[in-house]
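Researcher: I'd like a candidate sequence for this fold, 215 residues long. If you have to choose between options at a position, lean toward the conservative one.
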């Protein structure tokens, strides 16, 4: 479904990757309304529970509404069951909402987090509402430019520092090419111990047309 005139669009680059102790999610911070940059420092890493986050692309209104609904149901499940919900449960809720309303929504979602049953896990719900579990996931308009890099640079068993650098480099590459991605880079490291936020300002991003990228 195309965006309506003047609708805020998360033309973006979002990403999540699993590593040994958990997952790392990341996103740029540019929000656009048509050709106009509505916000340069948007936080696109949306918590839906203590150790479960989603990354949103598509219509800001659609994805924010879906995330609010999922957050409400996860809180209800946690109270009813007496334990934290799983990442799979959160992903299944996103999947159900997106699939049942696929003709009325412009929403691409990446769900990532940590739970006691699966540890760190990453799920992607693309346009159309299907659900896929993957070791890493990328989405948004900027993802077009980094599939090759991600396929080349990703490897299983990365350390925390290697996974952070992998996500940061991929998003910076997308920002350097995609006009709808920009601003700063926000990362979140999600493990059993909790959530750690990492911020990289726009003037500290690598300039790939100046420095050779080492693969």
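Model: Candidate sequence:
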């Amino acid at each position: 479904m195309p965006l309506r005139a003047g609708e805020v669009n998360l033309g973006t680059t979002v990403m999540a990757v699993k590593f040994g102790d958990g997952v790392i999610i990341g996103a740029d911070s540019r929000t656009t309304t048509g050709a106009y940059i509505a916000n340069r420092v948007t936080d696109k890493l949306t918590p839906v529970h203590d150790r479960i986050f989603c990354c949103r692309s598509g219509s800001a209104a659609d994805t924010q509404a879906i995330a609010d609904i999922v957050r409400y149901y996860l809180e209800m499940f946690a109270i009813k069951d007496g334990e934290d919900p799983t990442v799979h449960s959160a992903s299944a809720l996103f999947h159900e909402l997106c699939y049942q309303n696929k003709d009325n929504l412009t929403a691409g979602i990446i769900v990532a987090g940590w739970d006691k049953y699966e540890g760190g896990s990453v799920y992607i719900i693309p346009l159309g509402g299907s659900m896929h579990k993957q070791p890493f996931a990328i989405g948004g308009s900027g993802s077009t430019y980094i599939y090759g890099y991600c396929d080349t640079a990703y490897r299983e068993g990365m350390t925390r520092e290697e996974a952070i650098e992998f996500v940061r480099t991929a998003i910076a590459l997308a920002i350097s090419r995609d006009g709808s991605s920009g601003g700063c880079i926000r990362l979140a490291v999600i493990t059993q111990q909790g959530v750690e936020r990492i911020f990289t300002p726009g003037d500290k991003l690598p300039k790939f047309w100046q420095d050779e990228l080492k693969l």
